Amino acid sequence: MSPIAERLRSIIRDPGRIRRDEPLKRHTTFRIGGPADYLIQVANRQELSGLLRLAGEESLPVYILGKGSNLLVSDEGVRGLVLSLTGEFGHLALEGSTVRVGGGCSLPKLAHQARKSGLGGIEFACAIPGTVGAGVVINAGAHGGDLAQVVKEATVIWGDGRLERLSPHEIGFGYRSSRLQGTSAIVVEVVMALHPAGPAEMQEAMRHHLERRRATQPLRYPNAGSVFKNPPGDHAGRLIEQAGLKGAREGDAQVSAKHANFIVNLGQATAKDVLTLMDRVRSTVQQRFGVLLEAEVKIWGQSPCFLP
Questions:
Q1: Which domains, and CATH codes, for the chain?
Q2: What amino acid positions are annotated as catalytic residues?
Q3: Per-residue model confidence as pLDDT tens digits over 19-66
Q4: Alpha helical stretches, state H, the chain
């Protein structure tokens, strides 16, 4: 056993929560991605702090894996530690109109639990297949709502082990972004302010969101959601469709015929296929309309053919 593996076993007592050379395609909605050196299920803050300390001492990169949506992992995989927040990070507690939720809790679970408790404001999240923590980092949203509208505080652990509580201003929410992107911050808990609402009304709104998702998104094939951010005052899907790129293909990666801002995996697509197709889409849209599309999907590992 390597020295790093020994140290990991001293932090994570259950060896079943440590996977070596784990193919990440098993853990992404794209069903694409090479191996992680280590994929680790982290159950509490003590374990997380220990792993971050180890990573710092050994100069190991750290990645946080949510539900694997909005993510493209390179064919070569990623080095270092890929951490999945489980255990106490999935907690969910409601106190009046306030929700305290762990960063590892899924957004659909949060939305449905809030509905059952008669709390509105988070219905849009029922159709977002991600975690609360990842959602805060990218300000996840849909159907006219986003997390910036409800988040009142986020507790993060920085790469050096510091624990800090951040206000919405400090988080710096933007369109599908926040100041936390590109930093070492790991969102471990979020406080949200919701409002009383009728369960029947919320149920109808959520049913509408889910039906719209099924009707407009290519759920038949593995994908990572919207590939590009919408440019100001326009929609990436409209520009891609007007550029004649619906159905464009690179290997088994294809611009969806159902929604042009989705790239689907027809079966055996590689990350290189997707990145090459993204480059073609972006360059064509820029040539046709003078608009440079910005990637919304996150890219892990080597990405020689695409500059976000």
A1: 3-85 (3.30.43.10), 91-215 (3.30.465.10), 220-300 (3.90.78.10)
A2: 176, 226, 296
A3: 999 999 999 999 999 999 999 999 999 999 999 999 999 999 999 999
A4: 3-11, 45-58, 107-116, 132-138, 168-171, 199-216, 236-242, 271-289
